[in-house]
Amino acid sequence: MLIIIVVFMGMFTLAALSNNFLQYNPLEQFTLFRVFSAFLVGSALFNIHEKMTVHKAFDVLAMITTLIIIAVCILPLSSIYDGLVVICFAFLILFLSKAQGIYERLVSTQLMMFLGRVSYSVYLIHATFLMVVNQVMSRLMDNSEASLFYLISFYFVYISASLIAGTMFFKLVENPARHYLRKNWLSTPATKSDSNASSSSIELNQ
């Protein structure tokens, strides 16, 4: 029950803090609240995930959630767009983690697994590249009328640059940092003692 309460509190907070939810919403300025509410939703759903079992029904629910996300992106829901997208994607990840079926196999391909691995690095750098690409493209091309060609060119360059830079960031920063933290910070005392014992035995044998 506590988990369910936390989930719905997080959902309400995300909706309340979405852009233009009210004509004037002073909480909009506090990004920390928005991030923390998303964190609460993720934490609660993780605990729900631990109690779930793999089932074909989750494959159908994942498909339905995907259609809802597409609808949210198409329909004029700018007032609650942020909250709905975060909530829908959170449940999509939850359903896919326990799905079994066609959709699950589709998103388990090598390409999708690769995009999943580099997604956090892409997330970290995408805002910077959005500004850079916007400045460069606005100088190279006429965007006064926001033509279809300009939009296609802009998003092609933006997405390509973000993926390339995100992949490099993943290989050069995120992955080495994760291995370092796991080895030096997250290893258990027993693991460290076993490692020290192995090192001592090697030295004695030498």
How does this model look, in words?
- This protein is mainly alpha-helical and 206 residues long.
- It folds into two domains: 1-108; 109-191, no CATH class.
- Helices cover 78% and strands 0% of the residues.
- The chain is built from eight helices and no strands.
- Helix 1 (2-16) runs antiparallel to helix 2 (31-51), helix 1 (2-16) packs antiparallel against helix 4 and helix 6 (110-140) crosses helix 7 (148-184).
- The termini are far apart.
Concise description?
This protein has 206 residues and is mainly α. 78% of the residues lie in helices and 0% in strands.
Secondary structure layout:
Layout: H1 2-16, H2 31-51, H3 57-74, H4 81-97, H5 102-106, H6 110-140, H7 148-184, H8 189-205
* Element-by-element helix/strand order: HHHHHHHH
In DSSP terms (H or I, runs of 4 or more residues), the helix count works out at 8
- Helical residue percent band: over 70%
Unreliably modeled segments: 17-29, 197-206
Q: Give a short account of the largest sheet.
A: none
Instruction: Tell me the distance between the termini.
Output: 59 Å
> What's the overall average pLDDT, rounded?
75
Radius of gyration: 22 Å
Shape: globular
- Indicate the proportion of strand residues: under 5%
Please give the number of β-strands: 0
Structural class: mainly alpha
Total number of distinct structural domains: 2
